[in-house]
């Protein structure tokens, strides 16, 4: 019998790419999201779309029933993710989900107080097949959200990362690994750290974005308080802004600089390069028409 796969966070950066990869493989896919309308725009009738809100237990059963494998996307930057996802995982296992691919984060294994680490440990104790993915910061963070807006509108982005370096990874590569892991086999019980092949400081990133956008982009290191304020201005809840600020603060200490070869070993090819990502994403940073005419 063909495996039935649930992809949570199906409209997010990683989730949408996983769904697309699985569809090319003729997999039976159920796309779970808090925003079914967006999912329908993305996927049309090619997948079954279900509403799933981790905070609304009444949506759980419809999402996990008749599912064999699940990609689990934690709510981004949620300091309480372990509490909600622990219960959701228990429910999924009781509904006979037999394999879970968890999206965690680089460095989570060494931080016992991190919510994601607690989710990892809970998953490992359930007695089912699992794979844990720990990607570094995404290249695509620069072409969406508050970083995209800052680059597009002000030719400048600010982070509390100091001069730290990051081995950025492309979302599409993370999704390809996740899709492979959902097939089980050699990936069951494994924990992978997913990075690119080079580490960059954010000044280097600004240079690559400058080349791609065709105008000067600059990076300005700031303190954590300024970072939190910027994110609050962009609509981030306070708790999530605090988590994001701590994440970028960790860059200063070098924890996101190392390069790992897990991705290359799994996919049999080199990870995508930041320069190639930037050239392909250049439209995200183009000035809006009103900006160009000064209106």
Write structural notes for this entry.
The chain contains 13 helices and eleven strands. With 295 residues, it is of the alpha/beta class. The chain has a seven-stranded parallel sheet, sandwiched between helices.
Distance between the termini: 59 Å
What's the β-strand tally? 11
Shape: globular
Order of helices and strands: EHEHEHEHEHEHEEHEEHEHHHHH
Strand arrangement across the biggest beta sheet: 3-2-1-4-5-6-9
Overall helicity = 40-55%
How many helices in DSSP terms? Answer: 13
The Rg value, from CA coordinates, equals 19 Å
Please tell me the overall pLDDT. 93
**What kind of oligomer do you see?**
single chain
């Amino acid at each position: 019998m063909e495996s039935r796969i649930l992809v949570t966070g199906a409209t997010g950066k990683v989730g949408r790419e996983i769904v697309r990869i699985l569809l090319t493989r003729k997999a039976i896919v159920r796309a779970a999201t808090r925003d079914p309308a967006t999912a329908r725009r993305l996927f049309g009738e090619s997948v079954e779309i279900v509403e799933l809100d981790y905070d609304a237990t009444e949506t759980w059963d419809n999402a996990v029933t008749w599912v064999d494998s699940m990609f689990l996307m934690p709510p981004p930057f949620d300091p309480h993710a372990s509490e909600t996802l622990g219960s959701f995982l228990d429910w999924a296992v009781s509904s006979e989900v037999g394999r879970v691919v968890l999206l965690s984060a680089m460095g989570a294994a060494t931080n016992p107080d991190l919510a994601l680490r607690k989710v990892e440990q809970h998953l490992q104790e359930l007695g089912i097949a699992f794979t844990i993915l720990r990607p570094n910061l995404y290249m695509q963070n620069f072409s969406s959200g508050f970083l995209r807006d800052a680059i597009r509108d002000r030719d400048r982005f600010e982070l509390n990362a100091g001069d730290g370096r990051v081995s950025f990874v492309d979302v599409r590569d993370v999704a390809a690994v996740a899709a492979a892991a959902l097939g089980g086999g050699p990936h069951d019980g494994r924990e992978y750290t997913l990075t690119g092949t080079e580490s960059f400081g954010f000044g280097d990133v600004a240079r690559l974005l400058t080349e791609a956008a065709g105008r000067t982009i600059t990076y300005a290191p700031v303190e954590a308080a300024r970072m939190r304020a910027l994110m609050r201005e962009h609509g981030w809840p306070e708790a999530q802004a605090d988590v994001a600020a701590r994440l970028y603060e960790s860059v200063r200490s070098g924890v996101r600089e190392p390069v790992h070869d897990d991705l290359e070993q799994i996919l049999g090819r080199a990870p995508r390069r930041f320069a190639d990502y930037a050239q392909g994403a250049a439209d995200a940073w183009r000035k809006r028409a009103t900006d160009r005419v000064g209106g």
